[in-house]
Write a structure and sequence with these properties.
155 residues; single chain; 7-stranded antiparallel sheet; mainly beta
Length: 155
Amino acid sequence: RGLRKWSYKAELLYTTYNFSFTDFFDNGSRQFTTDVALGFSYLKFNLLMKYAFYSKENQYLFANAGISNGHTIGNITNEYFQQRQLIGTDLITETDGKVVEEIRKYEQGFIAGIGYSFGEFAAESRIEFGTGMSRFINLSSSTTRISLLISYQFQ
């Protein structure tokens, strides 16, 4: 009778992940300045299983869970720069390169959320845990995203 209903939901979205920091260290005889920037833009495909708890004819509470699959599509920032200076001298050494030598082009994740639907509108709170883009076990780049979604369904 539609009191409890299972359904599947597929989503396609564009998302970005950016991280950067600058660190300054002075031990009295040397100064170090380090700049790091890491960023990705990727296309994600989410596949969710949805369970709806109906409360009224056009309004219901729902929960969903599923997987996300993201693939990098461009604008990858992967920069490392360090400047070292020996205090009291003009000797400056600079190093630049990549933060991560090998970037994984694919990210997987787990998504869970709860929401409320009323007519064509819905509001949902969602959390996602992703594997990140680093291939190295010792360099974790895992992601946790918390989202609030407002949606409209065309009839």
